[in-house]
Amino acid sequence: MCSGGDLIVNLIEYFVSNFTFILGYTWDHIKLVGLAIIIAIVIGVPLGIYCSVNKYAASTILQIASIMMTIPSLALFGIMIPVLSLINEGIGTLPAIIALVLYSQLPIIRNTYTAINNVDPDIRDAANGIGLTTFQRLIKVELPNAMPLIMAGIRTATVLNIGVGAIATLIGAGGLGGIIYQGILRTNNTMILAGAIAVAVLALIADLFLRLIENLFTPKGVKK
Amino acid sequence: MIHFNDVTKIYNSNVKAIENMNFTVEEGELVIMLGPSGCGKTTLLRMVNQLESITKGDIMLNGKSVWHSNKIEMRRNIGYVIQSNGLFPNMNIEDNAMIVPNLLGWDRKKMRDRFNMLMELVGLNPDEYRKRYPHELSGGQQQRVGVARALAADPPVMLMDEPFGALDPIIRTHLQEEFLQIQKELKKTILFVSHDIDEAVKMADKIALLKGGKMMQYAEPARMLNKPANSFVAEFVGQDRVLKSMSLYTVRDLANALTLKPVIESPDSQNINENLSLRVAISKILNQEADQLIVENDNGTRKGSITLDLIEQFLHREIKESV
Amino acid sequence: MDRTNKTIALIIKLIFWALLIAFFVWAFANNMFSKIWEQPDTFLRLLGEHITIVLLSGAAAVLLAVPLGIFVTRPKFRKSEWLIVGIANLGQTIPSLAVLALAMGFLGIGISAAVVALFVYSLLPILQNTIAGLDSVDDNMIDAAKGMGLTNTQILWKIELPNALTSIIAGVRTALVINIGTAALAYLIGAGGLGVWIFTGIRLFDNAFLMSGAVPVTLLAIVIDYLFKWLQFALVPKGLRLARKAQNS
Ligand SMILES: Nc1ncnc2c1ncn2[C@@H]1O[C@H](COP(=O)(O)OP(=O)(O)O)[C@@H](O)[C@H]1O
Ligand SMILES: [Mg+2]
């Protein structure tokens, strides 16, 4: 056991001497989460839009997505390994990405759906009144107004996935969880802490970065 | 009786919300505080039940300084009604209305009787609403329960902050009239905040008109309309203050002040009860295109007749007196 | 249009159930839950450890986080509220794996380290939701209560807590579901739980161990989630449910 001061000195030393090594892990982590989020957006946003026109499907889809969200990450990996080993992909990046995509669905679908539903009915009426088709209305009116909330859902999903990504290491998907895991194997507090800090900082930076994008995406008139 | 003795309120040691306020709400009187938004009405009201502290001066409640009273005990003897959200959504209507008696430890039977009686008073069926929840009621019904709740422990004093302000006009008018009836019966000492001159004219025994934390005029509605103390009051009560004031005078007031015209019999002549307001009288004359109205008392005895000229003469007299 | 919509919703539901049933049929057909029948004692022990870790840490977290949430929302301490909320937000960006690992670093391996780690980790959502729940109580309502002569304690018990209850229970629900997942990692710090079988399965590439561990953990999480969803409904005063319904419609 070492004192707090020592711990900090050790930490700094660790970060300095393992800089490239940590950077590599971070890059793996970003690739994993980034790829998962892009796939999640491609699936989730259209589903959210569809939910906004079919309220029966909406309740079913949201229910399924929220059950997915409840499944503990290690258990989800544990279930996917046997299933994916049918196609020889049991361990590695594929189960990790599938898990992250599943976890992202609830925040993305729900926020898209809520955002579109929340568009002021008067605005929608006006759009209909000037003769826009449903599709034009969606592209020109509803999506721009819904953008901030959709982006907020993507942000929630990203921050969540950076945390879950740390566990994906355990099934061989790489990433910053590796530093924590090695720390556990060697009972090395400095490594554990370094890994934890790296994941937390990555999450915070992602949060900040996506807030900035959120701001850019928000039409001037919608800003509060 | 509520007596304001040189009351001053300063927020955050720089915002002067109330300045040297002096006036008295007599026992059984309904006084309405009126004035533009931010003039200090709510602040003044909330100092009475000590939801806001008093910076300087004192408020005497039935002869006792609110400074030196036990806050909790004092508040339980003051009915308090606010504009919105006063009801607790987690409690049913009976629990909401009986919250103060409950705290005071009344027994079940007494509370039930009181609830039934109050609900009848505010025009709601007690058994129908007892177990319902605030969100199952309309805005108007909620506000009735709010009034019933404030009356629950039979407090001698009521404080009401724009109690009907959030309701739509028709329901508001309805509740104002009902509340006036209740007040006629119960004779509470009431300090009531409003920003609506018509509400004040209709309901108040006296109006306190505030501006920037200072009293502009404290007078009976008729006096305020006809004899505004300064140009601010005149402007606030409006260009149509003469028209407004007509609803405050009865035909009898006119008959007492001026000699009525002799009755000229004609087939289309109309009668008017002397207890009705001049506003009704003038509408009747204009609507029916009658030249005169025959004034009757409750027994149907004719006392003479009034014409547009006569009403005009009366109003001139009242207003001139004021200048 | 409405009928087509309903049909599509039904089809989605059917596909979901069909996949679920297919999964279980496949798993049973390949004897993937065999460990549960072969080693019932071990299964029950692991399940017991898992539940113990989750409930002990959860209960302790409720006992500390709810009073703490009440404390920081009192007017006198409101100024420190942003700090607590900030810490709660920040803390949740630290991965659960790291919290467990750090607890081991300081307390050694074993069940107590796992309980402490999960306790600390579940403080955050409960605290966050307690504060949010109490903050969302309408100021006008509290004002009315004060004006009628309720004491601060009466206002807390009769008005604030009942109105914040949904949010508080939601926080406990979130915390417990997260804990069930994190407890599966407790194996890594020698605290047992159903994670033992999952990790054995990963190491040995043994599907029976994997499934016999992972599926019960999943079911546990879903059951707890539904139980608390029901509690949210059952414990919350009826008037508030109506209020929420009125707001949502
Ligand atoms: N809690 C407070 N802190 C600081 N200033 C306040 C507070 N409450 C009211 N004020 C200020 O005091 C003045 C009177 O407010 P208020 O009594 O609410 O007016 P009214 O009810 O007539 O609209 C306003 O300028 C308002 O901004
Ligand atoms: Mg006000």
UniProtKB/TrEMBL annotation, chain A:
InterPro entries: ABC_transp_perm/SBD, MetI-like, MetI-like_sf. Keywords: Amino-acid transport, Membrane, Transmembrane, Transmembrane helix, Transport. Gene3D superfamilies: MetI-like. GO terms for cellular component: plasma membrane. It is a multi-pass membrane protein. SUPFAM superfamilies: MetI-like. This is Osmoprotectant transport system permease protein. It comes from Terribacillus saccharophilus.
UniProtKB/TrEMBL annotation, chain B:
The keyword rRNA processing does not apply. GO terms for molecular function: ABC-type quaternary ammonium compound transporting activity; ATP binding; ATP hydrolysis activity. Its EC number is 7.6.2.9. InterPro entries: AAA+_ATPase, ABC_transporter-like_ATP-bd, ABC_transporter-like_CS, P-loop_NTPase. Gene3D superfamilies: P-loop containing nucleotide triphosphate hydrolases (3.40.50.300). Residues 2-237 form the ABC transporter domain. Keywords: ATP-binding, Nucleotide-binding, Transport. It is an enzyme of class 7 (translocase). The keyword tRNA-binding does not apply. SMART domains: AAA. PANTHER family: OSMOPROTECTANT IMPORT ATP-BINDING PROTEIN OSMV. The complex is composed of two ATP-binding proteins (OpuCA), two transmembrane proteins (OpuCB and OpuCD) and a solute-binding protein (OpuCC). Belongs to the ABC transporter superfamily. This is Carnitine transport ATP-binding protein OpuCA. The lineage of its organism: Bacteria, Bacillati, Bacillota, Bacilli, Bacillales.
Automatic annotation (TrEMBL), chain C:
It is found in: Cell membrane. Its main location: membrane. One of its GO terms (biological process) is transmembrane transport. Residues 47-228 form the ABC transmembrane type-1 domain. The chain crosses the membrane at residues 7-29, 49-70, 82-103, 109-127, 176-202, 208-228. It is a multi-pass membrane protein. InterPro entries: ABC_transp_perm/SBD (IPR051204), MetI-like (IPR000515), MetI-like_sf (IPR035906). Gene3D superfamilies: MetI-like (1.10.3720.10). Pfam families: BPD_transp_1. GO terms for cellular component: plasma membrane. Keywords: Amino-acid transport, Membrane, Transmembrane, Transmembrane helix, Transport. Belongs to the binding-protein-dependent transport system permease family. CysTW subfamily. This is Osmoprotectant transport system permease protein.
